Amino acid sequence: MSQKLLEDPDCRITIIDDLSNQNSKKRINHLPPAIAFYKEDIRNRQAISDIVKREGAHACVHLAAKISVVDSIRNPAETIDVNVNGTLSVLEACANNGVQTFVLASSAAVYGDADVVPTPEECVLHPLSPYGATKISGEVLVASYKKSGKISNAVSLRFFNAYGRGQSPEYAGVITRFTERLSKKQPPVIHGDGQQTRDFIHVSDVVGGVILAVNSELSGEFNVGTGKPTSIDHLARKMIRIHGLDVAPVYGAAIKGDILHSCADTKKSEKALRFVAHQDLETALRMSFGQRGLVAT
Ligand SMILES: NC(=O)c1ccc[n+]([C@@H]2O[C@H](COP(=O)([O-])OP(=O)(O)OC[C@H]3O[C@@H](n4cnc5c(N)ncnc54)[C@H](O)[C@@H]3O)[C@@H](O)[C@H]2O)c1
What we know:
By secondary structure, the chain is of the alpha/beta class. It is built from 11 helices and 12 strands. The chain has a domain at about 1-160 and about 200-225 and about 270-280: NAD(P)-binding Rossmann-like Domain (Rossmann fold).
């Protein structure tokens, strides 16, 4: 995202991250020198406020979070502390230092097992994990800062299953897991019958959605997905083909509580944000395979 934002010559970027995610440690080594970086925990209110003040930010894209659904079930307190208290800390820092625009990275996890698929933003939220619940809390906090006049433009973007270079294995885990197996010439393992569907969105499209939100004067919640469901079985067969292997997927036990179908209704984000996902899944997987042997990093 920072690379894309840097294309705008008027844009100055500051990143705050405590580097608690192993993946972020690797990424930080490759940051362009134009980007200011602070290693800090977002829950440290004074430090975050001081950084926002010193840097004179106009907009804040709040991505930092505990992102593992499984960890949030095992240890909800840590996920709630970072994702809710941490979000509050960042919001306070922004509100007290004149930041106009706040964009929260929310998640399709707020919908859980949705009543309607493709799921519109106004659908009833049924999160299945503390992680999903923290994203709802974050959204509600963000909206309250807008309503109380502390932030002018406050947006929560509900990312669906993002995939692509630099991703953490916790998300689109299925693409990472299939890739690992296929690169060893082993068949992908599907939990259940593979008919469960997901809305896989390339990271470049997610970045596009964030940039539209930063530059808009909108507030509210918006889906960031493709609106196109892909079954896990279809994904596995597609990836086998791309790897040029003559294997068939292996079917294991279904994961208890696994969501059956997840897909964004994109009408609201198309209309209000002018957001449209462009990257086709097959093309992105083929490009990634060609360039990097389809190693998801
Ligand atoms: N990748 C997806 O498919 C997806 C889907 C839905 C929502 N999201 C949301 O998008 C955001 C980014 O996700 P990602 O996949 O890039 O995950 P990521 O783990 O790569 O990024 C999260 C970052 O937050 C940092 N962090 C964690 N706790 C912190 C703390 N206390 N203080 C400061 N930094 C801290 C981590 O070190 C990490 O660099 C997250 O908010 C996530 O919930 C991602």
